[in-house]
Design goal:
With 89 residues, this protein is mainly alpha-helical. It contains four helices and three strands, in the order αβααββα. Helices cover 52% and strands 10% of the residues. The termini are close together.
């Protein structure tokens, strides 16, 4: 996967995991959540440099797929496009 695809996959996974409520049969996800990892940790997890992580997050924001109101908060604005990017590999 490309760096963008890896970042998109991670953001979607965090969205689903933070939205899980336990016994619900309906798949849950959050469109706004706080990242449990900083950019360095994301890079380590994905095999990317911190600069690449920051660049890719900025690229996704510029494309209108996400918003980054602060260093830790992510808002998914276009889940379909982000999902398509994550599955592009």
């Amino acid at each position: 996967k490309t760096a963008s695809e890896r970042i998109a996959t991670l953001l979607l996974e965090i969205s689903v995991r933070t939205g899980e409520t336990g016994c619900s049969v309906i798949p849950a996800f959050l469109n706004s959540f706080e990242l449990p990892l900083d950019r360095q940790q994301m890079g380590d997890l994905l095999g990317l440099t911190i600069e690449t992580v920051s660049r890719q997050l900025t690229k996704l924001k510029g494309a209108g797929m996400i918003d980054l109101p602060d260093r830790r908060t992510v808002v998914i604005k276009d889940r379909n496009r982000l999902s398509n990017l994550a599955e592009a590999a």
